[in-house]
Amino acid sequence: MMVRGMDSNRQSERRQAPRNQLPGHLERRRNDFRVRKAPQKIYQRVRGYLSNHRDVALLSLTRLLGTPAASLMTWSVIAIALALPAGLYVFLQNAQQLSSDWDRTAQISVYTSLGLAPEKSLALSKSLKTRPDIKEVQYISPEQALSEFRSLSGFGEALEYLSENPLPAVIVVYPQTTQGSVAATEVLLEDLRAMPEVDQAELDIKWVKRLYGLMALGQRAVMILGVVLSLAVLLVIGNTVRLAIESRRAEIVVVKLVGGTDGFVRRPFLYTGIWYGIGGGVLAWVMINLVLFWLYRPVAELVSSYSSGFTLAGLDLSATLILLCLSAALGWMGAWIAVGRHLSDIEPG
Amino acid sequence: MITFDRVSKRYESGHDALNQVTFDLADGEMAFMTGHSGAGKSTLLKLIMLMDRCTRGQVVVSGQNLTRIKRRQIPYYRRNIGLVFQDHQLLFDRTVFDNVALPLVIAGAQPRDIGRRVRAALDKVGLLKKEKLNPMALSGGEQQRVGIARAVVNKPALLLADEPTGNLDPKLSSEIMQLFEHFNQVGVTVLVATHDLSLIARLNHRILTLSKGRLINDGTRYG
Ligand SMILES: Nc1ncnc2c1ncn2[C@@H]1O[C@H](COP(=O)(O)OP(=O)(O)OP(=O)(O)O)[C@@H](O)[C@H]1O
Ligand SMILES: [Mg+2]
Question: Is A254–B187 a contact, with Cβ atoms under 8 angstroms apart?
Fold first, then answer.
């Protein structure tokens, strides 16, 4: 009886005093001081790591969206810097496609030797036509050439006094060109020039070459512009992340004091950089496509007068992916620069 | 738990904040540290937290000679110690719950454990109902208790406090000290730096007295 009473007494004491008693798990305090990561199973570590990354990534994004005006400003600056080289790249891609259309219309004028008998030049024209690298030939007899010349030049009367036709037969050769085969065409040209019946062969290709030269220059420009503006993006993101670090100084100190590693402290800022980069990349993509949309009709009208199959091309899937990956990488790198320079300055104490 | 062996700390300014300080704090002991402003109390705690290194002597904490702990290991070392500040150092961009959870998140605890442990710590300081609030919405005493919950949530073997009652009235101060005593009763080693002599006089614990960087008294009474 007495024993039971004491027992129930104790129990009620325990029930009344949870406030004064530490919850069970707090009583099991750790005696050993660890200066290393707690040992964990690999899958636990990987899962913890991934979920931490996901949380941090989301939190950083939420923070950026929490200050929409400031973030949009930064994104726009980055977008403009990315859209310039990317837009120039798109322009070049289109120019290349257009010029390869024109390339196909390249033609070679073959002037036969003056003394060559008409049937021989006709035979030459026929044999040329069988060559695989020639698509089409057009034979212009000396008479045709003369009459053409007469009507075009205005020397008509003077030509009446000539005792014989001074013009050779001309064979216009249309090379079998596949895309961008200027080199192959040049080989054909050399072949034609080497023929004994041929006096001269001229490729009307100088301007195509010039265009290609210009485009090579354009590609260099894309590279240079890309590098310079990437640097600008790095600086913009680096500076923005530096400000973010400054404004979270108190938090960094606390995190370090309760045992946050450098990696843990760094992570949200790296994600901030990545989000700035990706946001800028997306906005750049939108800008380029808006400009293309706006240019689509005028370009279509302009081009329809020359060539048929051409349509204005935008950024294809792989180019889009490259743009986004590159912008994310730039954001990450810019953040790294800022973090490397400024995070170690912030130490508790 | 803590051993100071002729520890001196000279700041770059040439000022000797600590001078030949030697003492031992046993595992599971509770002690107060007091002394005039500028006596070196915060400096001593900073040495234990590895926020700074001593210039002479050696500090050994739980068998670890602190001079041998590399920079990379410091975060893991600090996870063993709970630290309570005078100005509580809470983060106002997140809830009470998230403030207390921070050490667990940093240590990579499982989300299930985090919820359980945070609530247990908040329950202990009597703030379970306020977990969803922003710490800004709490009183000074409540904020300090959130800071204490954060310091103990990780089950540290050692609890340090630098003037934890500096901004509180006597009643709240003695409540806070009672909390520390409770943690001590379950085996946590506790070291509290404080100015509040009348408060610690009423509690029967060891008192370390610093003056101008020297340990001038070590006993259960101030003087
Ligand atoms: N980073 C520093 N550089 C130079 N001197 C410092 C630094 N930190 C502290 N001191 C000096 O060291 C001495 C001890 O400072 P400490 O903060 O440890 O004193 P305290 O006992 O905590 O004082 P209080 O009660 O006012 O908090 C003081 O004279 C202070 O000016
Ligand atoms: Mg101090």
Answer: no
